[in-house]
Amino acid sequence: MLKELIDQFYLDRHRDREQHHFYITDAGKCGRATFFKFKNVPREKMEARILRLFDHGDYIQMQILNTLFSLGVVRASEVNIPPQELVSGRADAIITLNNELYVVDFKSMNSMIFKKLEEPKEENVNQIQLYLHYFKIPRGILLYISKDTSELKEFVIKYDSALARVLLKSLETLKTKIDKNVVPERLADYPDNWQCQYCQFREICGMANGGDIKWEEFKKKIESREQTLGTV
Ligand code: SF4
User: Fold this and answer.
1) Rounded-to-10 torsion of CA 40, 130, 140, 89
2) What pTM was estimated for this model as a whole?
3) Which pLDDT value is given to residue 231?
4) Residue 70 has pLDDT above 70, yes or no
């Protein structure tokens, strides 16, 4: 009854769309998974429950942003990086503390993961490095929030120009592969990498070998699988 309606609302709102440009969150992540998103490869559906959890995280982050506004430290919120061809992204906030500017990015998680967090996650550092790069701000803060205990942890991140260059270079390389229809190699530690554990393309990825492959050939394999499964 009502539960089904709510579930369907979330599923409809979260229809998979073909990706046409990079987001900052793609930086340093599995290139093959991003390639599949650009080519609109069919992915495993997310459960409505998981989508509601994302919503819950967004809500908690909004509350923290409101607190920062009340403290009077926010200079801008939900700030888009300057437009350019390669990548788009939106930082949660730019604040001033002790006359210094900081880019702030909020990350919410469950308390089990939060408790174990002793250093910032690599993918979050990659993301904030690109914000620092594009905003030309030397420091950022990754603020982690435990969704079920409301505890906070923060890590100050200094701009690392070498890392930002590596991340941008890898996006450029990936863009070339997307344009030339070359499916990138798998992650070296597939399937143990955490990204593989959560990847919506895991099954499809397992149908190819580990190295670069030609998209046109692999696409036929995917289409024949979809026909066998009766999804097209
Ligand atoms: S399963 Fe792992 S290697 Fe394959 S696309 Fe997903 S994240 Fe990348």
Assistant:
1) -40
2) 0.90
3) 57
4) yes
